[in-house]
Amino acid sequence: MNQEVEQILNQAIDGTKITSDELLLLLQQDPESREAFAIWQAARKIAMESSGGMAEVHAQVGVNAGPCSKNCQFCSFAPVNNVFPEEKRYSTAEIVERALRFETDGANAIYLMITADYPFELFLEVSRAVRKRLKPESILVANVGDFGDAEAKQLKEAGYAGIYHVWRMGEGETTGIDPAIRQETMLAAKRNGLKVGTCIEPCGPEHPLTEIVNRAVFLRDEIKPVHTGCGRRLPIPTSPLNSLGILDKLAQALRMAATRVFFGYEIPWHAGDHSILGGVTGCNLSWAESGSNPRDTKADTIIGATVAERRDAFEETGWKVVKGPSVMFAGK
């Protein structure tokens, strides 16, 4: 066992924040090594203790599918991928029905997701309709394009507790968005009383480990989100990125666990692989999905699991799933 790795993990378990250099060292370990499995164990211990052994299952309704001008190459909505030549919008009634179904199924929070070009005023209108039909205590989270203070206030007024927003891997190179804009959206949300959930994604084999470290430092030290995560890129067959391949699950497990260790006890919730492997490596948040999905080539996703399936995956690895509204997004 590498003594430096062991020392880093022991310090993290004792509550000491690890440095960016220490995170990089953890990420550099062989995914099949003793060190990697020790990182898994430390990540799970920190997650279990900080969350009281609890996991959450959230649910997302994709509101529309179609070509998006931001042209993110990993996304099925990118025109370069030629998956959705025309836009499909679900009706307000369909969106409300899907949100209510997730509420009945026991999702701890319900997200509404749109592409960057979907009219913001229409999104607010749909959101108010959903908010009106959900129970007052049910949590709504917005997964939308970039915005400023005015839009953040409107989201808050429409009944949102927070947002899901990501400074993506390869931002500005494989996407049409300036990284600074992604960062500023998260800061605008925080300034206006919206909680921020986020992730380090979508990770591909070509991304340098230092890019993961940069994201992690920004999120932990500047954003202080209610949840973090680390996700791998799933291939869109027509994407220019498809030839670069996909991280295997052991390589991804190391990334999930190492970042979980880095975020420590102050951020109890972490997402990653939605399979049992995620629960083993300290991930205690996952999503069920309905409607559009940027990782799917179908307008009504076939890869988004149900709330019950996500709950079962956690319970099979020793987690207890929160009952009722989300703990991380609740409160002021």
TrEMBL record:
What is its EC class? transferase
Source domain of life: Bacteria
**Known EC number:** 2.8.1.6
Where are the annotated coiled coils located? none
Which UniProt keyword terms apply here? Transferase
| Annotated GO MF terms | biotin synthase activity
What's this protein's name? Biotin synthase
Give the originating organism. Answer: Sporomusa acidovorans (strain ATCC 49682 / DSM 3132 / Mol)
Q: Which gene encodes it?
A: bioB_1
